[in-house]
Design a protein that fits this description.
By secondary structure, the chain is α+β, with helices and mostly antiparallel strands. 38% of the residues lie in helices and 18% in strands. The chain has 12 helices and 10 strands. Bound molecules: phenylalanine.
């Protein structure tokens, strides 16, 4: 039926037949209406309004038509494409609105829900108290010094004027580290001849500091120490000491006393005095036990049975630790001239201080790592 196509009738061109154009438009509109989400609509757009869509291809055929036919076909195709684009835009807006509404519901954050169900605990009060003590001395120009916890006997005892046969050597219940040759041969060998112990106090850091540093020396040495005690309410085999050492020209016991007073004032409140009671340590001469005025009753509970003080046991004083002027023999062992230099040292246990400072009744609470113990200290600043 195709006549010679002299005038190039659009009805003869398959893609430009009115019913073909209507069909392409209707298919496009149906697909647009059926697109359930933006992704599907994107595909519909490519298929029905893209460069290779039926209407775009039909549009391309128009150029070859004679002028009159061109206008007709152009109008038809243009209207079809216009309708498709309009429908696309409307559906696009509709789907975007739906998506936005859904996101608002699905991704809503309930700010009233608990944000964290895992208890996070807090810094351990031993850490905060140690750092507080360090800060007091760092502010005065002291440096923090550290040493090994498995320590040579020479540092832990000999250099501190505790010879092997010194009676005070057995005062400290020592963990001895077994030597190589004893390993695996349990029962044979004494096991105490490796020359290494778990340090029983932080005083060996005095020696290490004197050997390693230029004079004058002002150091504070916090650290873990070990003694063969059973863990109970008042003992632990691993505990923490702070040692202080000052070596300079012309230091006297008055400097020791003033330093102690300052520390106690900074930790427990201004104006709390300290006292020294004669004592004995091989590494200090003279030596003393140091006490501070009870920061709770300030001595008022003494002789007043009606108002007992739990913190000091109505003694009026709280025992802090040991101190003294560094023994000249220790200075000599470290190559320091005792004729020119003198100094003082003191040491105390931080667990004990934490106990009386915060009314901790059982030492085990401090080592068991239960967050219920640490949390109330977490607000400390
Ligand atoms: N090292 C001693 C102890 O653990 C304490 C101390 C330190 C005493 C410094 C005097 C000087 O018992």
């Amino acid at each position: 039926m195709s006549a010679p196509n002299k005038s190039y009738d659009p009805v003869e061109v398959e893609a430009l037949k009115p019913e073909e154009i209507d069909r392409a438009r209707d298919e496009a509109l149906a697909a647009i209406a059926a697109a359930g989400d933006l992704e599907a609509l994107r595909e519909v757009k490519v298929a029905h309004a893209g460069d290779r869509s039926p209407l775009a291809l039909a549009n391309r055929e128009i150029g070859a038509l004679p002028p009159q036919a061109k206008a007709d076909a152009g109008k038809r195709v243009g209207q079809a494409r216009g309708a498709v684009n309009k429908a696309l835009k409307a559906r696009q807006e509709e789907l975007e609105r739906e998506r936005d509404e859904r996101v608002l519901v699905e991704e809503a954050v309930d700010v009233t829900l608990p944000y964290d169900r895992v208890p996070s605990g807090a810094r351990h009060p031993m850490t905060t108290l140690s750092e507080r003590i360090e800060d007091i001395f760092v502010a005065m120009g002291y440096e923090v010094a550290e040493g090994p916890e498995a320590e040579a006997e020479w540092f832990n005892f000999d250099a501190l004027n505790l010879d092997p046969d010194h009676p005070a050597r057995s005062m400290q219940d020592t963990f001895f580290v077994r030597g190589q040759e004893d390993q695996g041969a349990a029962g044979s060998g004494s096991g105490d001849d490796s020359g290494v112990v778990l340090r029983t106090h932080t005083s060996p850091v005095q020696i290490r500091s004197l050997l390693a540093r230029e004079l004058p020396v002002y150091v504070i040495c916090p650290g873990r120490v070990y003694r063969t005690d059973e863990l109970d309410a008042t003992h632990t085999p691993v505990f923490t000491q702070v040692e202080l050492l000052a070596i300079d020209e012309g230091l006297t016991m008055a400097d020791l006393k003033g330093t102690l007073d300052h520390m106690v004032g900074a930790l427990f409140g201004e104006g709390l005095g300290t006292r020294l009671r004669p004592s004995y340590f091989p590494f200090t001469e003279p030596s003393a036990e140091m006490d501070m005025v009870c920061f709770v009753c300030r001595g008022k509970s003494v002789g007043d049975p009606a108002n007992p003080c739990r913190t000091c046991g109505s003694e009026g004083w709280i025992e802090l630790g040991g101190c003294g002027m560094v023994n000249p023999r220790v200075l000599t062992a470290c190559g320091v001239d005792p004729e020119r230099y003198s100094g003082f040292a003191f040491g105390f246990g931080i667990e004990r201080m934490l106990m009386f400072r915060h009314n901790v009744e059982d030492m085990r609470d401090m080592v068991e790592g239960d967050a219920r113990f640490t949390r109330p200290f977490g607000m400390e600043i």
